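Page 47, continued from p. 46.
Same chain as before, 822 aa.
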Amino acid sequence: MYANVIVPVPLDPVFTYRIPDQFMEYVKTGSRVIVPFGSSKFYTGIVESITPVAPQKDFTIKDIAHVPDATPILRHPQLRLWEWISQYYLCSRGDVMRAALPAGLKIESETMVECNPDIDVHDAAAALTEREFFIWQTLYEEGRMSLSLLATKTGVRNLGPTANLMLDKGTVIISEKLTERFKPKKEEYLRIALTRGDENALHEAFKAMHNAPQQQKLFMTLLEMSSFMHCDKPLVEVTRSSAIDRAEATPATISALKKKGLIESYSRQTSRFSTAIKGTGCLPQLSEAQKKALDDIRKTFIEKKTTLLHGVTASGKTEIYMHLISETLSLGRQVLYLVPEIALTTQLTERIQRIFGDKVIIYHSRFSDNIRAEIWRKILDGNRPCIVIGARSSVFLPFAQLGLVIVDEEHEAGYKQYDPAPRYNARDVAIVLAKMHGACTLLGSATPTIETYYKALNGKFGLVSLTERFTNVVLPSIKIVDMGLEYRKKSVTGAFADDTVKLARKAVSDGSQVIFFHNRRGFAPMARCKACADIPHCRHCDVSLTYHRALQKLVCHYCGTMYDMPSVCAVCGEPAIEIVGFGTERVEDDIENIFPDARVLRMDLDTTRKKDDYANIIDAFSEHKADILVGTQMVTKGLDFAHVTAVGVLNADMLINQPDFRAAERAFNMLEQVAGRAGRQNVAGQVIVQTRQPGHPVISFLKEHDYAGFYAYELEERRAFTYPPFARIIHVYIKHRDSRRINGVADRYAQELRRLLGNRVFGPEEPVVARIQNLYIRKIMLKIEPNASMVSVKNILRDTYVRLMTESAMQGTTVYYDVDPQ
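Result:
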């Protein structure tokens, strides 16, 4: 028998392996297997199918090396979903597997290096260069280690080529070691090592401790906590940590009692998740408008398995979700609740756990490998009703009885995975996932994407509208401030117009809170020479560097390289370097100067790098431990702060002026969403939007909260230029290290695609950032009819790739695709 195995490499085919007799009963579709790949590597693979038919190709078939599990770790719908993602998003199933499977479930081989025992120090010194001998000495002194650890200990970068040279000289041995990252959590327990009910043994035990009061205290604590003396009751397990806390004992006391044979310890695997959370089961009361919307959703689900809930900000969509979740759980089915940003899981979890308790499971990429692997197994091994709240990677979990998928803030670009492949949109994947399970999908947004609203209006999706805020709170008023005029009037302090400062000052003095939105992190967008206007750029990317004052460095936001802040200009030599513009770091500084008594928090990528940073900032602001929150787009995404009455948008133009057909939509959505953070309770909210383009259509529609008007305007723009929903966009990216060859390579690729696809092909052209990490980039755009087969398109693109990559001129070229770019 043979297994067709998906291996986590970016290659299209599955790979066939022979199933050894000893593994025959364990290898099933969806099983995890360890397979050899290439000359020496081992990978975790997933069995796609099993067949008695040997491949007809002329190559040596390798055996499966190991089967770690007795049962499969994937269900059949997941394999179907992987197949759909690979076809639609034009990537390999290996790419999908690498994104889908938690790292803790991937057993992979690691390259290990050790000294050749037949070579002594003198021979090594004679055969090796000074650098190689330094590496050899490290191995000689510390023994066998991984290549990555050796690089860390020696400080030698790119160690692979050097290790290969040492291997050729016979001074080292290189091997592969299989490493499993998942480590189950184990808890240590203590118990009395006597026969229950034996009074004599108990008497002797206390005699043995007569001069040791600490030992007596711990022993008595264990007797009490375990119910040892109550023979009519079952024994209670006592954890080591709880016994130490209760008895105020030390590890030495435990060791002494164990040595006397009075207690013993044991350990067993335990869950990383608390099961002590009990929900009230009390659902929130709904307004009449919410009740009608809930009833309409139930009706549309009968005919349309996917429905859009279009509700204005603060209309109470989450309360409606809770009622639908309760109905789904009562049927014994599972719920997937997708949110676009990890930050949203913090507030949402607290609200939903209060009702549903330990049925709530959180899943996102900030969790450790071990936690994610344990969640995977928990969902795989249990069919009980549960709610998974998570970011985009949650769509890959092994659901058994999925009954409802909720995609909150469905318009958010955060659902789109950019790099690496698969470059999927979790909203669209979730809809397909729900169909495969026979589940319903509810898309929720105050500002749905043009494509989603178009499908809803044209009957592909159901449509339910919620046009009023909860408890009839009015939408915030929006004031547009013309920054061109303000600068001429000299009515600007830092990044703030005088009207913005007045609004914020009044809100803080009234005991309310303020949010400032500025979609650029760092202290300043760039440094510049005042004498010659030269702007320092990254050596590896075609972008200017952002100044981060906390680091005292210039940082490239594309490759992460840091540079010292120059004291003199590299071009003219003048000591005239200045920092220009505003990032959130500098805005925070200005706020502290303008509002010296206000408490300020900042939420951007730089302040939320650790797992609990999101929760800490959101909790602090929710509890009114700060008066002002400044942040990037993180603050726009569905957060609910009861005391926020004022919102300031410091630079709307950076959102509008993007060279992208989605720029207007993205700007309107983001600005309307951040405006919706104001006045969510009984106090009317006020919003100020600073812009140099007060007459721009986006600003005009935003001022009136006119989504329908904006949709109609934007749809006609899309129709005129054949953009979604009237076409499907695919970007073909071509990368090469040689700046002299990239144009010729891209032109050749576009020429071949144009021959096959005709006027559907546009470009090639330089993207906004034309070089990243020393790779030069060109972009070809394809406009494909919405009803065209993606399988056929993939076949054309795949055949073109295979044919062109055999040409010598194309060597060193990287090609990848972005379907439905956001």
